Amino acid sequence: MSKWLVSQGDRQFSASDLAELKQLAANGTIGEADMIQPPGTADWLYASEIPDLQGLLGNSGGGGYDGDDDFRPQRNYAPLMALLVLLIGGGGYAMYHYANTMPEASELELLGANGLAMSEVLVTEPNAPVHDKPDGASKGNLVKDSSVDLLGKRNGWYHVRDAERNVQGYVRADHVIPAYAFASAKERENYDPLYNPDRYVFVKNSSWLQIDQQNRNLTIFQFMLQNKSKFTMTGLVLVATIKDKSGKELETVEIAVEGVIPPHQSTMVGTLEAENKYAADAVNRTMTTTSFDEMAEDDEDLQLRWSPGVEIEMQEKGFSEANIDILELRAVPLDSTG
Q: Which CATH class is domain 76-196?
């Protein structure tokens, strides 16, 4: 019987059939960010891209990726359409599931001025819903066979913008096809960071310090972000998670980070204090040191308001474990400035 292979960080195991795979998803052993290789194929998909696992998956699997570990599966991670193209004539699981949802070549305008850009995705689901956040409230729908701009990726969701219909939000990854799925295998590998930026940026050397000031429960996180791709990374959203002694998750807080992570470089993250910290509307800015240093070139006084690390006020007290992970990210196309 053909097996399904599962990859979680540096751990791999198999499921003997689809029923066992679904059971592993249902009991939380695998999550939507884990990689799955269907029987009879050489390609790997996110678990969230397997139709039979929809509704069974949690946000993370049993093993997963550790932010201080350099491991990432170095394979051709072509998404749905690429898998279909590679399997034409060979049958296989993906052929059965996706054949009826893929647009015909004659329906696509992929060449010339009307062609897909490498920073776009093609909508394959009729009236694909757009949400304000993953699994959040609906903000509208996308038109099947239309192309929309890619703004980032968050787990099994793409952050997209339909400029023509003024709709922006999150759409399920299995409701669209990245433009690079129509390219050669070499180009898919070349452009993979555009569609899977979270595979190329790592949280390194993270540490935290819990302090109490004026009845506030503060935690200072310090860490480095390492970009191993040729693309500039931006649109970064981090998530701070705290746990108790038993490992139970107590609280999570999202952190939007301004600025960029240059290609093939590392950067720290710090906090720029509001110019008038006593003002009622004072807001500190969290940003990469790379972008702060560029700002400070024109205003040296900014250094007086700058501090390394990110100060986060948590509601829960007495936690014993805290960590920072990447939640959302965008790779900037090489021909784009934003």
A: mainly beta
